[in-house]
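To fix ideas, we quote verbatim a fold written out as tokens:
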Amino acid sequence: MHFHDCFVRGCDASILINGSSTEKTTGPNRLLNGYDVIDDAKTRLEAACPGVVSCADILALAARDSVVLTKGITWRVPTGRKDGRVSLASEVNNLPAPRDSIEVQKQKFADKGLTDQDLVTLVGGHTIGTSACQFFRYRLYNFSTTTTNGADPSMDAAFVTQLQSLCPADGDGSRRIALDTGSPNRFDTSFFTNLRNGRGVLESDQKLWTDASTRTFVQRFLGVRGLLGLNFNLEFGRSMVKMSNIGIKTGTEGEIRKVCTAIN
């Protein structure tokens, strides 16, 4: 959720605002889990120290804590963000999308001051993420004429069968599926192992392996011999701090909302 927030208008909690045409109403955000958790944290903080902690800071801290709770590393989260006063559904196109090519993904990250390594690192956060069937089901049926099952040829055949059973062609498109089928509740590098084995759920994720320009970073996280290794936990914390500083609002640029779902 913090990622979805920061890529639209910066890290200002605009994703949390209710309304008929806000960011929250769009396809990529409507099915996200955790809105109730943020609202509960805000209620408790307002009771203890009213007007001090912004919803934007709660999102940043919650993202860090979700990693820690799933056996990942901790990192120091800079605070002091203000909450934004604008949330527009039309601006959610800025978000990286499941069908984006690697070049489009790179450009969207570069536009936010993030590198190709940040791209691979932050997408690695899908090790504890889920996606709705509607965002990847097209890969499983009538995608290609070159495979006997009609699926995306970059996918492992056994994995296709597994996903087809979970996401039937005429099934519930909102059903959530783990993006890391190896260890969905543990923050680790098994997500990258899945990509190497053709078991990436989202097309945009799998392209991190099939595209040579990003595959090297995946290999470095996996400790492939002959390449300078990267520590996923350490690099994830660094990239998250960079991302959490995108377009932050301070002073009169924003406010500290009393409730996260509405501007003051």
